[in-house]
Automatic annotation (TrEMBL):
Gene Ontology cellular component annotations, sorted alphabetically: Golgi cisterna membrane; Golgi membrane
Name of the protein in its database record: Fucosyltransferase
Molecular function GO terms recorded: fucosyltransferase activity
Domain annotation Fucosyltransferase C-terminal: ranges: 115-278
Family listed: Belongs to the glycosyltransferase 10 family.
EC number: 2.4.1.-
Species of origin: Lingula anatina
Membrane topology: Single-pass type II membrane protein
Gene3D superfamilies, A to Z: Glycosyl transferase family 10, C-terminal domain
Gene name linked to the record: LOC106171537
Main location: Golgi
Pathway(s) of this molecule: Protein modification; protein glycosylation
Taxonomy of the source species: Eukaryota, Metazoa, Spiralia, Lophotrochozoa, Brachiopoda
Domain Fucosyltransferase N-terminal positions: 13-96
Alphabetical keyword list: Glycoprotein, Glycosyltransferase, Golgi apparatus, Membrane, Signal-anchor, Transferase, Transmembrane, Transmembrane helix
Pfam families, per database record: Glyco_tran_10_N (PF17039), Glyco_transf_10 (PF00852)
Length: 307
């Protein structure tokens, strides 16, 4: 199996039930490979596809920022399987997932919350997005204090010390805006998962159904549940004043731990390659783009306010 520009699984070490697959980056072995994995945003020139091979299209990019590279030309009809954050991919690869702790933590979140002195923080580097999150935040700031860190705001964090910066934000602030750059089916990125284990309440703006990404309603405050940024601000201010209600959004963190992408996807891939009963399937020309892009880059519907 040839994984190009992606990850480097060692199938035996990650505990795959079927572990006879071998990873290589050597393009000279492409003709001998049973599967070749291509990164959707950097397809480049197309190698020769052999009859026995399975070609796999991989992306972790939003549908709004993905080019329909296979819809025509030499790549049309070449791909058999997909790996992405979409639940209906051949192989599901989310940005993160939650696992119940075998031994729960015993953090006192009331004490932690009482030490917080600030309301809302947002760390962001892309100041103009398809999802227009910047417009939403601009309206939100009219009703509640939002401190913006990074390239789009006055507060700075060193990219070399990002973890410390997030720890400081978690210590000082009650809420963190985990707003995706676009609204795309099942698209929940590290913007959510990097805050999972921190002592802060996450406010999300992204796909309508976060539960498809394995995220429970009590784990976040979803902008989809509010008619306007003002209504959201009113609720955040209510939680700011009511420590008992606020802490309910943190207490579950004693029970769960956030983990980053599973190795299971590679085990599933290896098993599928070894299954003699697995039928040969492929995406006909244009179907991959239709499946991933058409109707899945969703225009925001929460920006109907006077600015």
């Amino acid at each position: 199996m040839h994984l190009r520009d992606y990850a480097k699984p060692v199938f035996k070490s990650i505990g795959c039930k079927v572990d006879n697959c071998i990873y290589t980056e050597k393009k000279s072995l492409a003709d001998k490979s049973d599967a070749i994995v291509f990164i959707g945003r950097s397809l480049g020139s197309k190698p020769k596809k052999l009859p026995h091979q399975r070609w796999i299209w991989v992306t972790l990019e939003s549908s709004c920022y993905t080019e329909a590279a296979e819809s025509g030309g030499v790549w049309a009809g070449m791909f058999n399987w997909t790996i992405s954050f979409r639940r209906d991919s051949t192989f599901f690869l989310p940005y993160g997932h939650a696992k119940k702790r075998s031994t729960p933590l015993t953090k006192n979140f009331t004490k932690i919350a009482l030490k917080k002195t600030k309301k809302v923080a947002w760390m962001v580097s892309n100041c103009g997005t398809r999802g227009q999150r910047e417009r939403y935040v601009s309206e939100l700031k009219k009703y509640i204090s939002v401190d913006v860190y990074g390239a789009c705001g006055p507060f700075k964090c060193s990219k070399l010390d990002n973890e410390k910066c997030l720890d400081n934000i978690s210590r000082d602030y009650k809420f963190y805006l985990s707003f995706e750059n676009s609204i795309s089916t099942d698209y929940v990125t590290e913007k959510f998962w990097k805050m999972f284990d921190l002592d802060i309440v996450t406010v999300t703006r992204g796909p309508a159904n976060y539960s498809r990404a394995g995220i429970k309603p009590e784990w976040h405050i979803n902008t989809n549940d509010f008619k306007s940024p003002k209504d959201l601000a009113d609720y955040l201010k209510y939680l700011d004043r009511n420590i008992t209600a606020y802490v309910k959004y943190l207490e579950w963190k004693n029970q769960y731990v956030g983990l980053f992408p599973k190795a299971d996807v590679y085990c599933d891939l290896c098993a599928k390659l070894n299954d003699p009963s697995e039928p040969v399937t492929w995406y006909p020309p244009g179907q991959l783009a239709k499946w991933f892009i058409d109707g899945h880059c969703i225009p925001p519907n929460d920006l109907n306010f006077n600015t």
